[in-house]
Amino acid sequence: MRVLGALLAVVVAVGVGLFAGLVPGHHAVPPEVDFDDAILAAAAQEPPGDRVQAAIDGVRETGFYVGPELRDELTDDEVATVERIIATAPVPVFVVWWADTADAGYNTTYAALDQLRVGVGEDGYYAVVTRGSYPLLGALGYRDPYVDADGKGRAGAALERLVDELAAVPPEREFEGGDTRSDYWGGTGGGIAAGLLFAAIGYLGLLAVVGLVGALSRSAREGRG
Questions:
Q1: Residue 164 exposed, middle or buried by CB count within 10 Å (0-12, 13-18, 19+)
Q2: Are residues 125 and 224 in the same domain?
Q3: Are 77 and 126 contained in the same domain?
Q4: Can you tell me where the transmembrane regions are (predicted)?
Q5: What is the span of the domain harbouring residue 224?
Q6: How far is CA 129 from CA 2, 83, 89, 217, in A?
Q7: Is this structure's pTM higher than 0.90?
Q8: Strand, helix or coil at 150?
Q9: Handedness of CA 133, 130, 158, 43 (dihedral sign)
Q10: Is 55 exposed, middle or buried (CB count within 10 Å of its CB: 0-12, 13-18, 19+)?
């Protein structure tokens, strides 16, 4: 009788464990709000001014645009070096270098970066470098890049360092949604582990029940005897 009870406990416990391990536990995950998409949609509603449009046209050609007010500060070799690094980067890189001005045609440099991304419209890394300021970085289709280059120092060397670091950023595609469910077992391995845990708990629990029933049966027989 004990053997049959133990076998029954094992069969039931293993069945529960297999069910828990093989049937994925999913629960709905609320869709994430993409604030960058909202920012770009707002930027698309505002036509770029002449300055930003010139930058858009410039980076479309070589990936590098220098504002006319700064063109005398870079040699032809320095421009060629920056453009060569951009051309060989694994991810498209678009860099604007210009000076600050009160007559820019945009509210902030962040707004200019957003208009640049909308205007070019290609997946890649974007940088707007205002002389004397840290570069503003963004991306389309990829996670925003991070670099140590601060845009300070001699113009040619600072820009070369910036594009070198941008070209070296590991390309990570931006998350584009997909399954809106989350497996609370933690994947297949977690499901199997949960199944084994349930099997062990079920086995021990049923053994306890079988033992209790056996003890009560023996007590009843002894009472009748």
A1: middle
A2: no
A3: yes
A4: 192-216
A5: 1-20+204-225
A6: 80, 15, 19, 86
A7: no
A8: coil
A9: positive
A10: buried
